[in-house]
């Protein structure tokens, strides 16, 4: 995708007894490590590196709720295992992606997703895995216009309940593209204009938007970046994760 776009990249590294996942996009840089014994998650760790609100670094602690989860390929499972609204949305869904890969052979997978601008007109959402396009939607606002099998569906309807009957790989594709399509709307706002998370007036969908947290969550000015190409984003993600960088940038 060559047009200006919201871009997100996820790298998942699968080991014998741990899974490391790193995420970066316009607004976020997060990491998750899941330790397991071959049957269940024994420890879940999160890293908030670049984030929009000062309360976001508290959210990794909530990942402890994932401990004890069995290793399953179904990406909708964790939504039933714990309340995702008590989690950072992006950390939690990064953990969902990581857990879904637990049954694979050791190695690395690269997920790349992008949603083209402009937000008010026709848009294109694409997801590639290891360089191969695996899913693409045409959008008008929040309505999918293509492919035909999804035409007329609202992006928001493709949540964990709405895709629970799909095979795990297809469900994972939809969860990733859904989040990217929804998060891309942030590009039309001056996000630095909101002093606190509460000032946005959004429903309590995540940790920093919960009552009590939203009024404490101050805007981290300058945390919004723009990625002109997929290569700039991937280079940043690989460089940060390879160096073990845990500082905001």
Tally of domains: 1
H-E string = EEEEHHEEEEHH
Report the count of strand segments: 8
- In the predicted model, the low-confidence regions spanning at least 5 consecutive residues are 242-249
Topology:
Blueprint: E1 5-14, E2 18-25, E3 29-36, E4 41-50, H1 77-81, H2 89-100, E5 107-116, E6 122-129, E7 132-140, E8 143-146, H3 168-183, H4 230-243
Antiparallel strand pairs: 1-2, 1-5, 2-3, 3-4, 5-6, 6-7, 7-8
Can you give a write-up of this model?
The protein has 249 residues and is α+β, with helices and mostly antiparallel strands. The chain has one domain (5-190, 218-242). Helix content is 19%, strand content 27%. It is built from four helices and eight strands; from the N terminus they run ββββααββββαα. The chain has helices at 77-81, 89-100, 168-183, 230-243, and strands at 5-14, 18-25, 29-36, 41-50, 107-116, 122-129, 132-140, 143-146. Strands 4-3-2-1-5-6-7-8 form an eight-stranded antiparallel β-sheet, with helices on both faces. It starts with a strand and ends in a 6-residue tail after the last helix. The relative contact order is 0.20.
Brief synopsis:
The protein is an alpha+beta fold. The protein is 19% helix and 27% strand.
Spell out the key features of this protein.
single chain, 249 residues, alpha+beta, 4 helices, 19% helix, globular
